[in-house]
Design brief:
The complex is a heterodimer of chains A (105) and B (125). By secondary structure, chain A is mainly beta. Chain A is built from no helices and eleven strands. In chain A, strands 2, 4, 5, 6, 9, 10 and 11 form a seven-stranded mixed beta sheet that branches. A four-stranded antiparallel beta sheet of chain A has the order 1-3-8-7, with no helix packed on it. In chain A, strand 5 and strand 6 form a beta hairpin. With 125 residues, chain B is mainly β. Helix content of chain B is 0%, strand content 52%. Chain B is built from no helices and eleven strands. Chain B has strands spanning 3-6, 10-12, 18-25, 32-39, 45-51, 58-60, 68-73, 78-83, 92-102, 112-115, 119-123. Chain B starts with a strand and ends with a strand. Classes of the chains: A mainly beta (105), B mainly beta (125). Chains A and B meet through strand 4, strand 5, strand 9 and strand 10 of A and strand 5, strand 9 and strand 10 of B.
Chain lengths: 105, 125
Amino acid sequence: EVVLTQSPGTVSSSPGERVTFSCRASQSISSSLAWYQQKPSQAPTLLIYDASNRATGIPDRFSGSGSGTDFTLTISRLEPEDFTVYYCQYYGDSSTFGQGTKLEI
Amino acid sequence: QVLLMHSGTEMKKPGASVKLSCKASKYSFNNYYIYWVRQAPGQGLEWMGVISPSGGATSHAQKLQGRITMTRDRSTTTVSMELRNLRSEDTAVYFCARSGGSVSIASLYYYMDDWGRGTTVTVSS
């Protein structure tokens, strides 16, 4: 069973800065990884799929990279609405989520 | 745009069962998997299971083995998820979501590109 570990649990930053989130898989998962953003009391929103493909309508300040076991989500220029929680998801021969990273101001 | 409409809020006692529904519209129902994901209060997302609307194939998380059943009604484009023997730990918001990839023989597992708003299930004596 694949386990996804996101780090850090919480990251602090400021509008206009660049931030990266890590998601590490317990075994190689090729590029079968997605990233989601979830705002309070809302359903998650797909940001990135297949590790590096931006979903429809997602601003280009969001980017994903990685393959195998190590993946990164980068937000290049933080906007105030970006301060929320981010999850990674594996979808290969099963599916699971990481525990999430909270981005705070 | 894709629409996934949940059934209403549920309150159940421990040991009871709950059946949630998710009505899909504005896309070709048979061509995309539907997933169930839940989120306990203040916690992260938990992948629960998947159903193929076309053939009815399902898969679910091992921890829910024996307690979860997913079905679909193609005539009403509705997917249902029943969870039995409820425990307090099942208190959560339950989301249905549509796969980002089309139904295929290759895999049941995809990312999720459209989500319902979720429905709250509270389990309490």
